[in-house]
Input
Amino acid sequence: MALIFQPAEEKSSGAKVMCDEGMMERFDIAQVYALHNLPGYEFGHFATTPGPIMAAVDDYVIHIQGKGGHAAYPHGTRDPLIAAASIAQGLNAIVTRDLDPREDLIVAVTQIHGGSAHNIVPDTAMIAGTVRSFDPDVRDMAERRLREIVAGQAAAFGVSAEVEYERGDPPVVNHAREVALAAEVASEVVGETRVTTEYKREMGAEDFAHMLDARPGAYLFLGAGEGAGLHHPKYDFNDEISPIGASFFARLVETLQPM
Output
């Protein structure tokens, strides 16, 4: 049994680095399990599912280069802000028109920056956002269409645009046998009525995905009760769920490695 203290979880994919450096082989790890608190979900309830439970994550930044000038003389400029607005609207078509509606995909615009004064058309603008998916073909399609839309809109407005597209962590995919085992253990801790293996998959992401690619295992949520959601500025971890989570892991070890 090994407790994995994972660095750089949020953005730098510490799990991948650990796997790449041979952690699984060095410590003879055969299975992996992870638990994440979930505000807004019933206190002390466990939730998981076999198969995909969290999405793949990609990030992008679009740099738009126009020609600045006085806003009173727009004919002498190439406005990157107008191009940025059109690109942002166009990206919505990836989900609404390019995607099979039976699939899951998010193409989110989360930042638009540009401009410095009321009467100046700026030289540049920037758009950034995130893409979430499960299917590799959908993931490829989203990147391809994003690049095509950016290129087309840039040409239409007479500006240039550069796309920085970073592939992040893959989907978190649970293994069915390990999910069943984890659910059984959780039931011993909190009771069968407080455990579900039919949790609907989420569009959030988690670099524990790399560990599940390397070894069979399961990722579970533990309900923290009412409170601000994850990443919310008013989020406050509910300390009262800690003994429940610790008991789950202790019982899991007792089950898999009995004395």
User: Anything to note?
Assistant: The longest strand covers residues 56-65.
